[in-house]
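FAQ
Q: What does a multi-component entry look like?
A: The components come first, one per line:
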Amino acid sequence: MSHISIIDDEVDIVVGALQPDLSSFMEEWKPIFSRFHLIIVKDPDLKEDLKIPDGFNMDLYTKSDIDRVMGSSSTAISFSGYSCRYFGYLMSRKKYVICFDDDCVPARDSNGCIIDAVSQHIANLATPATPFFFNTLYDPYREGTDFVRGYPFSLRNGVDCGLSCGLWLNLADYDAPTQVLKPDLRNVRYVDAVLTVPSRTMMPVSGINIGVNTELVGPAMLPAFQLVKEGKIRWETVEDIWSGMCVKVVCDHLRLGVKSGLPYVWRKERGDAIESLRKEWDGVKLMEDVVPFFQSVRLSKEAVTAEDCVAEIAASVKEKLGPVNPVFARAADTMVEWTKIWKRVRRPSKVQRQ
Amino acid sequence: MTATAPPPPLKDDLDIVIPTIRNLDFLEMWRPFFQPYHLIIVQDGDPSKTIKVPDGFDYELYNRNDINKILGPKASCISFKDSACRCFGYMVSKKKYIYTIDDDCFVAKDPSGKDINALEQHIKNLLSPSTPHFFNTLYDPFREGTDFVRGYPFSLREGVPTAVSHGLWLNIPDYDAPTQLVKPLERNTRYVDVVLTIPKGTLFPMCGMNLGFDRDLIGPAMYFGLMGDGQPIGRYDDMWAGWCTKVICDHLGLGVKTGLPYIWHSKASNPFVNLKKEYKGIFWQEEIIPFFQSATLSKDSTTVQKCYLELAKQVREKLGEVDPYFVKLADAMETWIEAWDELNPAKAK
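Then the predicted structure of the entire assembly, as tokens:
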């Protein structure tokens, strides 16, 4: 298939720093990160100074920057914990934003070679997606493969890809109950595939290893859904799941694609699943309301940009989920607030409905 | 060695259906995996030719004369000079599960060099649930070494029964004629270690080369259409069955899996011959796909047969306008169901 030339200038790598010492994280990623501009956002709750090695082209944002930019809206949106990365999206001026959790390092493929997760995300985002019909040989644009017999020709151009969801070796992104039941479960299976998640099919998007085309779906990557007792371990949050479903609804409506699969990152051991389960499993329970809502939400013909879509989703959340639990009503308000801030700080998304 | 090995899974509950017009030499390679199972050979083409089945296999063989004798006038729904005739084997089987494979498909090796027991993997796929309502990013959560990911609602973790297991092919990939012409040398060398459920509401191109299914759950939908001799189209038999099957599975809450196992597909058919067969299909599928994507079945269609007959009516009404072939096909779909119910009375509801 066509050669993808990655223009480094079009890429920002955003990292939310939830731990103060980023030295080993940055050193491990250096061969891959060094070509790109980095945006590091310090969790506003983190008291200690960040330790970041030299040799990177980067901008660092801390609580004071967040307060300054947010101005009077600073209390409306929380950038605490994992949500600090969204400030990075806000500050970015690039088309592609790639984001990794700070407890992930580069993984190796089945040949033992280091995986350049950034390049893979770019390749996913820069090649078409195929959400309207499933190709049994997965991504038809990858080298060595194609559309199979029976795939309609009119659908072979594909559509633009808005989101690239990567995976994790070692500590996969399981919830706390699963990890408690299977404490030794580690993901060792390298699945050499990228595929488009079909239109109207919902999925749990993990924020651990992700790439976004911000021109297409930027405003839908939002820090809206925060649990009451949200913590600093992935088992204690579902903000990314919420954001991901918003993005999927937006993509389905605007006829854009979401890909899942490669690249893998290696996720290091962190946290105690039992502790997390004891503290907080509201997120798990709330999914029972969240998922049916997103599966059934439909947007109007008039919603032609990502901002329009987010506004309609927010209104629907307020109406349908608001009465169920106050956390949803808050999420709806935050989404509205976020769209205003996004418009103010960044240029609006230019994509019209295809 | 230690204790005796367990019996092959589903030994008495599964038939292997093989259409052939040439010979069955390929069975020698499959012997370690297939010999415990009963085979149904559907001999296409000249019925006076004798097709030798390698020694040691337990089988029944049907040629065109047998098909005509058993079905009488209803034999008109079974294709001639096309591997679509294989669906006759599904109809006469008395087993719960079917595995069908083409006679140019051999045992493949996994990345560690080990021979892949494709049948065993299909059985694993069919005996574990599917998850069509919500996509699991770690694919089949019932496979060893994996599970549902964070955010996957617990109420959906039981899954639904699996009706179809769609396997893939290393070496010669299942491309259509235009793609074969453009890329004659492309070989599928990528082993993707995954099984996944095709989500509800999403169609796919189902290939009949390496396919397992639960006859009780979906059998009557596996009609491979009117292809080959006397028909304007070929190489769309499995596609047609796949679209019907998926619509019905989605309606009845059944799952369709795709991915492992791989077989080794050895023979690249002639792309010019294929182009002639597929030609009409390439245009027609632009109408057929939207038809299936928007097909809805009524709440009263609670069995596969009822669903299928409802689809046949819609095919006649909507696709009949595209070409008279579809009117003939709709008739054949109805004939198929009549024949199925006649040969499978206990299962007809």
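Q: Is there any commentary attached?
A: Sometimes. For this entry: The two ends of chain B are 48 Å apart (CA to CA).
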